[in-house]
Design a protein that fits this description.
Number of helices: 12
Strand order of the largest sheet: 4-3-8-9-10-11-12-13-1-2-7
Number of strands: 13
Bound molecules: SN-glycerol-3-phosphate, calcium ion
Oligomer: single chain
Radius of gyration: 19 Å
Order of helices and strands: HEHEEEHEEHHEEHHEHEHEHEHEH
Largest sheet: 11 strands, mixed
Length: 335
């Protein structure tokens, strides 16, 4: 065990965070690789998802949007100007649209066939993250991600689940490209639309979850951002009527005040549990631009705080940090 912990320290020393102490609890919340290991690789690529699992993520998280020909692909948004080389390759495909009430200018997945999207290359969106992998990876389909999760499950000798999110589902339905039937069909093809499969399905849109409810026995997760209406007990009970979990912005659980310094936790985790809902929190990140100064530059302290507050799952761009914070060993060395 001592040797194993020493290897953890060695493996992650280059990532710039402090490993967990040797006696940290092995159990704890599930680690959800947010857009893969998006702190280390361009988000929503097979390489990002693979690295997340290798670093200790229990689930990999694809955000799903549709192509023109109705194929599900993983992108954070249907606008892909910031995360691919689409501008250089399809300069004449730029469009202005209104998506969920917001004016957006750029390149949209629904204007490209899958064959066209497959010619693009992913790139890192954030300027302060590594761009060493820009131009090297493709935009993956949901089918490929499910294949990868199955392969990683065999390779790593433990379940690697998927945690897909329907992105702008009402918008996609409005243009004849509804996401939900395609999502369920893909899970069916891979044998994962069954109770007990390692899958959570998430959305910010309750209507999308209500559409999914009769189509799948899998647990559904309603996402709520920091500006969400108050989570009264009555509201939690209403959500529990169609969902099994809430995915909460971290500030709904640990608020922050002036200077982004943290304040005492709310009681929402306990009240959600009382309503029968699991609680998953998003999104923990290492960089100072995201991390409250209250953690003194130690993201693993934030991770442990949420674990200690009893959340059931934690989304992070840095699954290596999460695994170290919980004292878990990754299945293979981080690259
Ligand atoms: O799905 C949880 C979290 O990822 C929600 O935010 O915008 O990163 O998809 P977003
Ligand atoms: Ca997401």
């Amino acid at each position: 065990m001592v040797k194993a912990v020493a290897l953890t320290i060695l493996t992650f020393a280059g990532a710039g965070f402090i490993p967990a102490p040797a006696d940290a609890a092995a159990a704890g919340p599930i680690i959800i690789g947010h857009r893969g290991a998006s702190g280390h690789r361009p988000e929503h690529t097979l390489e990002s998802y693979r690295l997340a699992a290798e670093m200790g993520a229990d689930y990999i998280e694809p955000d799903l949007v549709s192509t023109k020909d109705g194929e599900l692909v993983a992108r954070h948004e249907n606008e892909i100007g910031d995360t691919t080389d689409v501008e250089a390759r399809f300069p004449d495909r730029k469009r202005s649209k209104t998506i969920d009430g917001h004016a957006v200018i750029g390149w949209f997945t629904e204007d490209f066939t899958l064959a066209e999207l497959r010619t693009l290359h992913a790139r890192e969106r954030l300027p302060f993250r590594s761009h060493a992998f820009d131009g090297r990876f493709a935009v993956p389909t949901f089918d490929e991600i499910l294949d990868l999760a199955a392969a990683l499950t065999k390779e790593l000798g433990r379940p690697v689940g998927v945690y897909p999110e329907t992105k702008h589902p009402a918008y996609f339905a409005s243009i004849g490209l509804a996401l939900e039937p395609k999502l369920v069909a893909a899970l069916e093809r891979h044998g994962w639309n069954t109770a007990g499969s390692p899958v959570f399905i998430q959305s910010f849109e309750a209507a999308s979850l209500k559409t999914l409810r009769p189509l799948t026995p899998l647990p559904l997760v309603l996402l709520l951002d920091a500006q969400a209406a108050p989570l009264t007990d009555a509201r939690l009970t209403e959500i529990a009527g169609y969902a099994q979990a809430v995915g909460l912005h971290q500030r709904l659980i640990v608020p922050a005040g002036p200077g982004n310094r943290t304040l005492p936790p709310t009681d929402v985790v306990a009240r959600a549990h009382t309503a029968g809902l699991k609680v998953h929190v998003w999104t923990l990140r290492n960089e100072a631009v995201f991390l409250s100064p209250s953690y003194n530059g130690h993201p693993e302290e934030e991770f442990r705080q949420f674990a200690g507050l009893g959340v059931d799952g934690i989304f992070t761009d840095f699954p290596d940090m999460g695994a170290a914070a919980l004292g878990r060993m990754p299945a293979t060395r981080a690259r």
